[in-house]
Design brief:
By secondary structure, this protein is α+β, with helices and mostly antiparallel strands. The protein is built from 15 helices and 13 strands.
Length: about 475
């Protein structure tokens, strides 16, 4: 195949576009494209906040705020504002009685480049302002005694126009365009060496065809990376503190000390609070118990003067993958690694299950490729039920393999694997979801054994071995249930 032939160019362009589309930014920039950057200090602790009017009036929904410490050093706060045209903004310097001194104010884009300077004379009192003293280098704002909602009006003449310039768009797109060009060049080079490449691909396909389980594992890994590319490549996290309006240490966002991101991700109503309010703290308690105090994490002394931790079915202690999080003391990177690993378990487990039932590698690979894109992951974005669903295929897979095993030793091996899979599912993080999946998967596995096309004697012997293993599982799980 010639390097610059029309078929080569067309194929390379299509492949490049398909591979890069998920990484291209949206043409509609989000609300954190611009910011009101103010340098200030306050005599009282509280929050600095800016409101914008997009046609619906001032509202908490159309605002951005950050915590301000009491009598701290002058700090710079970036209050996020969406693109648009503004004649006024409402600026609340603090939400308490005190004095705020503003040392600087300007509008910046997301790279920090100044878009428009703001003079102290552009501010005017609106509510609960006792005095407003604009000097050469600062603006002193005194709140009326007992005030808790002081407001200033920031006027712009001419109107403030916040649009992404060609320069900022180019700075955002150039790295991605370079990646597209590099990928295009690589594809063209590969097509130019098509004969040799075709032979190598055929050899790889033959090797994987002889090892379908390995093909399922690799396909599952590829699908997981593709479905979670913002976490793998973009520095995002399943447990970032600015996922929705989840209140942690403070009652306003940002709700953690030292965290400055003022924007919130819209999770479309997904329950993202459980992982922050319960399970991340649980992992830290378990870390302290095991690695600091040398004790089993049986009791949570930090909740309600003491509550059971291991026996309440949500501590995840017993799930092998959870030990990564416990060892890392609940670090965000460890939680992200666990989410990715659990997603791989789902894709690989379903693929292997299809392979065991149908003996068709193509069907197994299609299922593994599709599994990480289940709509469930949109609704249960980071909820602990995530882990229960991802672990669910493995008990059924063990039942299927035990049903097809030849010899009691092989059946016993899969029965032991079934015990481990059930323990992992039972401790996967939720009670309702995990236990219903536990019952459903094991009942389905029982039906597989009973309906197998083999003599009843063989079926009953396998069932006896598995039943003995399940009795062992019940004995192990009884103390923690």
């Amino acid at each position: 195949m010639k390097f610059l032939s029309l078929p080569a160019l067309t194929a390379a362009a299509l492949l490049s576009a398909t591979a890069v589309v998920p990484f291209l930014p949206s043409l509609r920039y989000e609300a954190d494209s611009f910011a009101l950057e103010v340098g200030l200090t306050s005599t009282t602790a509280g929050h600095v906040q800016v409101f914008w009017d997009n046609g619906t009036g001032w509202s908490e929904r159309n605002s951005s705020f950050l915590p301000v410490p009491e009598r701290g050093p002058t700090a710079t706060y970036r209050l996020r504002i969406p693109a648009g045209v503004y004649r006024t903004l409402r600026f609340d310097p603090i939400d308490a009685d005190g004095t705020v001194i503003v040392h600087s104010a300007r509008m910046v884009d997301k790279t920090g480049r100044a878009v428009r300077s703001i003079g102290f004379g552009d501010f005017s009192a609106l509510n609960q302002i006792q005095s407003l003293d604009a000097g050469k280098d600062s603006l002193e704002i005194r709140v009326v005694p007992g005030g808790n909602d002081p407001q200033l009006l920031l006027r712009f003449d001419p109107p403030l126009r916040l649009y992404n310039s060609a320069r900022s768009v180019a700075a955002d797109l150039l790295p991605r365009a370079s990646a597209v060009l590099a990928l295009l060049a690589a594809v063209l080079f590969g097509l130019d060496r098509a004969d040799r490449l075709r032979g190598r691909l055929a050899d790889a396909a033959r090797r994987l065809g002889g090892r379908p389980a390995r093909a399922v594992a690799l396909t599952s890994a590829f699908a997981v990376v593709l479905s979670a590319y913002p976490v793998v490549f973009g520095g995002k996290s399943y447990v970032a503190p600015n996922i929705a309006d989840v209140r942690l240490l403070y009652d306003a966002n940002p709700s953690l000390p030292g965290y400055r991101a003022g924007s919130l991700a819209d999770v479309k109503g997904s329950d993202v609070g459980a992982i922050f309010w319960c399970h991340i703290p649980y992992s830290m308690i378990e870390h302290r118990a095991l690695l600091r105090d040398g004790d089993w994490p049986l009791w949570n002394r930090y909740d309600s003067c003491g509550t059971p931790l291991l026996g309440q079915g949500q501590s995840m202690f017993g799930d092998p993958l959870h030990m990564i999080v416990v060892a890392a003391n609940g670090a965000a990177w460890a939680w992200d690694l666990k989410y990715l690993a659990e997603k791989w378990l789902l894709a690989a487990g379903l693929g292997l299950l299809v392979l065991a039932v149908t003996r068709r590698t193509s069907a197994a690979l299609i299922v593994s490729l599709a599994a990480p894109f289940l709509g469930f992951f949109v609704y249960r974005f980071n909820h602990p039920a995530f882990f229960s669903l991802c672990t669910a295929p493995w008990p059924l897979y063990c039942w299927v393999r035990a049903s097809g095993a030849r010899g009691l030793r092989a059946v016993g091996g899969w029965a032991a694997a079934l015990v481990l899979a059930n323990i992992a599912l039972m401790n996967s993080g939720t009670v309702k979801e995990a236990y219903m999946l536990l019952l459903a998967m094991n009942f389905s596995g029982l039906c597989v054994v009973l309906c197998a096309q083999e003599p009843w004697g063989s079926r009953l012997r396998k069932l006896a071995v598995v039943s003995w293993s399940m009795a062992l599982f019940a004995m192990i799980s009884a103390p923690s249930g």
